[in-house]
Amino acid sequence: MNQRVLRLFVWLSLMVVVESVAAQVSGANIVGRVRDEAGAAIVGANVEVVQTATGLRRETVTGSDGGFSVTNLPPGPYRVTVRQSGFATQVQDVSLVVGQSATLVFTMKVAPVEETITVEAAPPLVETTTATLHKAIDQEQVQNLPINGRDFTTLAALIPGVTTGNRAVNQNYDPVKRRVPAISINGQSGRNINMLIDGMDNTDIFMGGQNIMLSLEAVREFDVITHDPKAQYSRGIGGVINVVTKSGTNHFHGSAFGFFRDDNLQSNDAITESLGKPKPPFDSQQFGGTIGGPLKKDRAFFFFSYERQQEDRSRVFNSGGAFPELDGTVTPQPFRQNMYLVRVDGRVSDAHSVFVRYAEQDNKTLNLFFSDNDAPDSSADEFNKLHDVTAGWSALIGSNRVNDFRFHYQWFENLLQNKVSSLEVPTLIFPAATFGASQAGTQNPKEITYQIRDDFSWTIGRHNLRFGGSLIIQPEIGIKGDFRHNRFLFANNDYDPATNTIGPTNQVLNYRSWSSPRFDIVNKTLRHYGLYIQDDIRLGRVNISAGLRYDFVQNLFYNRGTLAEQIVRENVGKVPGGPKRSEPQDDKDNIAPRIGVAIDLTGDGRAVLRAGYARLYDPSSILASTLFADLEVPQRDGSPPFNFVFVPGSLLDVFGIVPGEIFDASTLPFSFPIGFVNSPDMKVAHADQVNVGFSYEIASGPAAGLTFDVDFAYSRTRELTQGRNLNFCLNPDCTEVNFP
User: Fold this and answer.
1) In what order do the strands lie in the sheet with 76-83?
2) Can you give the pTM of this predicted structure?
3) Partner of 282 at 20 to 30 A CA spacing, among 64, 81, 269, 431?
């Protein structure tokens, strides 16, 4: 464990005396109405809400319309008690999941003597208070549904419109994200997911997608917002995943688990079988456990989880007979991973709660391949290390105001190390196989993130008003590497890997060169400022949600002093379809309105009609292109800049390849450095989302509790980054600029 992170965690733990924090973005709400048997509103009734697992207690009174609202509650089981003089006391149990607004209706009966009535009916499953399209994967589903690989985000695919975007268990949208699931919502890229853990950011702003992964045993539940998130959520044009980790309770509890598979349970793959070779070895072991309980009853709790994964799988090479001497070659791909999580919760008083949580993930995978066609010796090793600390303080002010403050620190480093040095060996790409250095290239991205956010909620009559802000500071976002990478695309498979010679019938169709030995570059300190205001208004059966959000990301776009930028400035307006501005500028007008309407059609919470609109801005994954533009700038240590070139077309004459003659591939040249630049017109991507839907729950009969949802969702995204090739051809018959 990183010593600096350990000291920070211990220091924060000493501040903790107790209980779960009710987060603005990782909690739940209870809203309801209290009326008499004639249907008239009961004003001034006392409503008490107690979390049965920890003793957390909140109180409020009903307003002029008999309504009440208790916001920002930690997910879990609750007992709601309603008292009013002259009426029998009513008690109802309800279990809250993250992101939920449970609606309860109490019909009070006149009682001349003290009497308590327990309401057995479950609250409606249909959510009548919001137009946001979201579904929670609750604790029971997380614990009981079988998952191959035990990655909890796989369960997100249970939500309509959600798929896992990765093509296989160890492939993803980027070489440094091989085992990180690419969750696609409504067809969006996995790069544009906004993932929160305990209310704080877990999004990789460099490459996109999520950063740290958690053990399934450490996750209590999570909410998937597929459309129209409220104003407290930033980013997420590709959807929001809001994760809540487990915490301790008043009872000691623990678990131990082990999942084991080996090649005795595996069938032989078709390629190996057809070649008459033995079954490739396979062995997988996942084991660990959890423990949690009280440090002091109703006051302090702890939770700890650990998971170890050991997997020995293999890759079987198949060129379809193009290179028969290599077909069936088995390459072992061992994977080792540890995941830890420890959390301490506490309640200083009935009005003040605190918590601190630390998570760590480290793993390594050997012999990764950039594509299925890579030859057995064209692989790379990958290593990941992540630390994540979150601490929070929640203060109840009176009975109707809650302030929630949180601090977050995250450290992430990845190393992708080529087995064959791209400084010495080019990459030869044939239709059936790729030889030489891995196309991934040796690279070492690193991110350090600090985040603070504060959210304030205030219930005033029919209004649940919320406003707040966040600041994310990332002083270290950069990448080190060792590229001198040259990729040659050939027309056919006429190649002898044993002698490294190109056959007489082959020709080069395409050449791409990356050139920068031992580069080390970093972005300017990135600062993301976010402010929002949100009002949820109850008007009888109609609930209106209106919000406004503003985001500003500083140092996302700036002039990096490259030769390519100078060329662009000197030629503004001269290139068809080229940029209009000469200098890049950070966006300062990212104002995002959010509005939704939900109508309880029947008044009993069983049928709802909803509609909503949201604008979202998302800078995720833009930095991947801006940092690679930065690679052309002289580095921190004064080393030469990184350079990039892409040259399409037939290049026989350039490389001295004579048609009809055998060619020695080791004589292929290296590096034609040409600038790589971002357009000065680049802006933060934004999406406009609209949804209209209807939900209905069957109240009685054999199908009681069955819910039907019908939704129309529309999203239009603009300003997504797109590459354009402005290089000059090297072909003898090409003299003009190349455009896509």
Assistant:
1) 57-61, 46-51, 76-83, 89-96, 116-119
2) 0.83
3) 431
